[in-house]
Amino acid sequence: MASSPALAYIIVYVEDVEKSIAFYEKAFGLKTRMATGEKRTAWAEMETGSTTLAFTPKAQRETALSGGVKSHDDSEAAPNVLVSFTYDDVNSAYKHAIDSGAKPCAEPEPKPWGMTAGYVKDIDGILVQIGSRVKKQQ
């Protein structure tokens, strides 16, 4: 390889890009970097630091190339991806996310790996971790 890879995007396939943008702005305090297109060509990027969180519709050309994207059903377990955000005040961020429409999964608690974390599901069933930065072990 010519250079070391850098994680550029986490792309989440959603039912409605506009609704997802509004939800992530309200529930997690993110800002929209850009949004374009409509229906099958929609694309939105959220400001999250060095890696971009992006949303695109489940029913777009690229998903058909790979065999499609499985729709989520509330009776099912969360998809095999987790989006993680860190906050200074985890308990307040967790409560705010739930008050904004996130589905609670697990309240914040100290984890053995040195962080406090709670879990919610977003409006598309994606598991979201609301946590603190990992504290260095002494």
UniProtKB/TrEMBL annotation:
InterPro entries associated with the record: Glyas_Bleomycin-R_OHBP_Dase, Glyas_Fos-R_dOase_dom, GlyoxalaseI/FosfomycinResist, VOC_core
PROSITE patterns in alphabetical order: VOC
Domain VOC residues, every copy: 6-133
Superkingdom of the source species: Eukaryota
SUPFAM superfamilies (UniProt xref): Glyoxalase/Bleomycin resistance protein/Dihydroxybiphenyl dioxygenase (SSF54593)
A Pfam family reported for this protein in Swiss-Prot or TrEMBL: Glyoxalase
Protein name in UniProt: Glyoxalase family protein
